[in-house]
Amino acid sequence: QRPQIGRDDPVLPGWIYFQPRMIARRAEKGRQHGAAHHAADDARLALVADTKLTPHRALATVGADGAPSIRTVLAKGIDDDGAVAFYTNTESLKGRELAANPAAAACFYWRQLGRQIRLEGETRLIDEAEADAYFASRPRGSQIGAWASAQSEVLASREALEQQVIQVEARFADGEVTRPPHWSGYWLKPR
């Protein structure tokens, strides 16, 4: 049994937390639930720690036709307000959809714990310096891939992609791989 927490405890607003026989939601501004607090702590720990408990993350955006579009993304951070960071090609389908409509939803699932957390809110681009810093921390192969791959586009062939990789590797052979202008991150801030 988890204890209830008081008003002054740091709770991530807007997170919805589900567990068998337990559903808690921040129902109104200023109201906080113990379950949401524990869910946010679990999310923060799972996002920071590289463990088998790291949750699967599904991100849903809205297309121009109003239809939902969902895919899995790698969540790379969580701030004190409960916003979750993820990085992508901004020219991808998700990037184009977020440019047209910043509304999004995410679902984090821990099969091993029997828990899921859902959040809905607005996205905003991560600032350039933060995107540069994260890009610089990625493995070189991932950096090359960000330049070589037209995310969300159909490949002409595997050979065409491999040729793009060779060209990008040659371009950056003598130095660090800089962040492409079409690659950045987003914060998804819960409502």
Description:
This protein has helices at residues 34-48, 93-100, 128-137, 140-148, 158-171; strands at 16-19, 22-25, 56-62, 68-72, 75-78, 84-89, 103-110, 115-125, 183-190. It is of the alpha+beta class and 191 residues long. Strands 1, 2, 3, 4, 5, 6, 7, 8 and 9 form a nine-stranded antiparallel beta sheet that branches. The longest helix is centred in the N-terminal third of the chain and has 15 residues, at 34-48. It starts with 15 loop residues before the first strand and ends with a strand.
Strand content: 25-35%
**Helix proportion:** 25-40%
Give the N-to-C terminal Cα separation.
28 Å
* Count of runs of 4 or more consecutive helical residues: 5
Seen as an oligomer or otherwise, the chain set is single chain
Number of strands: 9
User: What is the structural class?
Assistant: alpha+beta
Overall pLDDT level: 76
SSE order: EEHEEEEHEEHHHE
Low-confidence stretches: 1-37
Outline:
This protein is of the alpha+beta class. It has helices at 34-48, 93-100, 128-137, 140-148, 158-171; strands at 16-19, 22-25, 56-62, 68-72, 75-78, 84-89, 103-110, 115-125, 183-190.
Short descriptors:
191 residues, 9-stranded antiparallel β-sheet, 29% helix
SSE blueprint:
Layout: E1 16-19, E2 22-25, H1 34-48, E3 56-62, E4 68-72, E5 75-78, E6 84-89, H2 93-100, E7 103-110, E8 115-125, H3 128-137, H4 140-148, H5 158-171, E9 183-190
Antiparallel strand pairs: 1-2, 1-8, 3-4, 3-7, 5-6, 6-9, 7-8, 8-9
Helix pairs in contact: 4-5
